[in-house]
Amino acid sequence: MNRIEIIKIFICTTLVLLADAQLKAEIPPMFSTKVVQKMQKDELTKVYFPAERIVWVNSGNGKMVKNEDVLLKSGNGQADLTNRICCVMTNLENDTASVLLDFGREIHGGLQLVLGHCTSQKPALVRIRFGESVGECNSELTYSSGKIGYSTNHHAMRDIIMEIPNYGSIEIGNTGFRFVRIDLLQEKTTINLAEARAILRYRDIPYLGSFNCNDERLNQIWLTGAYTVHLNMQEYLWDGIKRDRLIWLGDMHPEVATIMGVFGDNEVVPKTLDLACEQFPLPSWMNNMSAYSLWYLIIHHDWYIHGGDIDFLNKHKTYILGLIDLIVNKIDENGNENLAKERFLDWPSSWNKEGVEAGFRALIVWAMKDAEEICNILHEPISAQKAALCIKRLNQNIKEPNKLKQAASLMSIAGILDPLKACNEVVSVDGAKGFSTFYGYYMLQTQALAGQYQQAMDIIRQYWGGMLDMGATTFWEDFNLDWMDNAARLDEITPPGMKDIHGDFGAHCYLGFRHSLCHGWASGPTAWMSEHVLGIKVIEPGCKVIRIEPHLGDLNWVEGTFPTPYGIVKVKHTKSFDGNVISKVDAPKEIKIIQ
């Protein structure tokens, strides 16, 4: 061992010891070393802020709720005896004092109540309802999925009856919400509510990627997609912050694409992939779904291309090679496969069995192409050959997409259907009709492959912009443009004769208010606009080579940034009077730019 290697070991060891000492220094000394070793620090940040708007009160002509505007002011979270002005809530006989607050945007976290005097000798009883919409806040729990307005406490408690302290504070909730309704439940009781602050719990990381153009609607869509994923970057990468607070490998793919374009290398992705392998060891499928094991391979490929982390890829090598064997052994010489009885792409496509079959087979081809490339990177030629043979077998028996946009998109991306044919005959037919929030990303990618950039941008404005028009601050688990007909926005009480955009729609597992209005898989336009409008495409692993090829469509200019392992790439594209695009690119010296 030479002198340089000894110095490196000394520095690394010192840094580890210093980090360990810092952790121990933050723990009170009465805890034993054994206990400290079992502790886990919270890696997320917590902040408090008041509501922006009072949506509604049940005040009994001012007799039951007074001074509710106090709840819109900033506070310090400290109860006191100063008899400061509070929101006074008093229950009269056979009537309930209620306040419905709007915190302005979807968040993940809970609620802090700061209380003054209460007339009851016992702790007062309140009902707290969190909602992603006004309608959800006003809903009753209904565990029969066949009913309109299906509302549950599944995955996260959002409808809670609890006692609150006199001259004290309490924190409630761990869910996704924008609105909170507070009901005082005890008769002939008065409480003094000094503060009702939202608790935002989030991963404190910078937005390294950015997008700005002369169309504010597209800017807002890009940022909303980024924020949707950011909220789902909790301890692990979730699918939704209210329902589906779980690791779903298929749903992760659009989220990972967004993370790469907005946040760059973030530990939540490898950490989540590690846990997924622990939860679903071979020969199990990821999430017990064969399609989601295919997405696992695709995610690994894309994550390596962006970050170039060969150590992480090697860490998963045994699992990757074992998964390839599992898949290959279920495909015969004639291209017939029996990966699983149930095929799944996304919920809106479930009705089209023939189309799902075609799309599922295309997903296998896509995953095996990425797997072959991974194996070559890992110097595993035998496994690479297995993946290539698998593709050859499957392509002997290509199915028709049966007019299913999800299927045609996967087939185009997998290279087994001409993108222009896919768009002209299926994907671009009737515009945004038939789009979905998850697979819409792959429909947009197919339009890009076909050169239909303007059509894709128009659909982004109409479809994802439609959610914004209905009051969305994050993108939803599912959306259909037809839902907008005679529907009220999610941030208002639904007038008589109109539909509730949240409670009256949805299907499958997301009927009514169970529908998640913050689902990471819906962020596709953010990644798509960074790649195709800003025109930033990673060509070699680790972003060592990047191609800049913007497609402005009807835009006059666009500018933005893109995170890489070497730093930020900055671009600005301006359309001249003759229609040509003039580009300015600023990139770290380690990156080769191709234009």
Describe the structure in brief:
The chain has 16 helices and 18 strands.
Describe this structure in words.
This protein is an alpha+beta fold and about 600 residues long. It folds into three domains: about 5-40; about 45-200, Jelly Rolls, CATH 2.60.120.260; about 210-475 and about 515-540, Alpha/alpha barrel (Glycosyltransferase), CATH 1.50.10. About 35% of the residues lie in helices and about 20% in strands. The chain is built from 16 helices and 18 strands. Helix 14 runs parallel beside helix 16 (about 525-535). The protein is globular.
Strand content: 15-25%
CATH class of the largest domain: Mainly Alpha
Q: What is the level-2 CATH architecture name of the largest domain?
A: Alpha/alpha barrel
Structural Rg: 26 Å
Q: Which stretches are low in confidence, meaning pLDDT under 50 for 5 or more residues running?
A: 3-24
In CATH, the topology of the largest domain is named Glycosyltransferase
Total strand count, please? 18
Number of domains: 3
Distance between the termini: 46 Å
User: Which class best fits the helix and strand makeup?
Assistant: alpha+beta
Query: What is the typical, i.e. mean, pLDDT?
Result: 93
Please work out how many helical segments DSSP would assign.
Answer: 16
Choose one word for the global shape. Answer: globular
Largest sheet: 9 strands, antiparallel
Overall helicity: 25-40%
Pfam family, one: Bac_rhamnosid6H
Domain Alpha-L-rhamnosidase C-terminal: 535-590
Domain Alpha-L-rhamnosidase six-hairpin glycosidase: 208-380
InterPro entries: 6-hairpin_glycosidase_sf, 6hp_glycosidase-like_sf, Bac_rhamnosid6H, Bac_rhamnosid_C
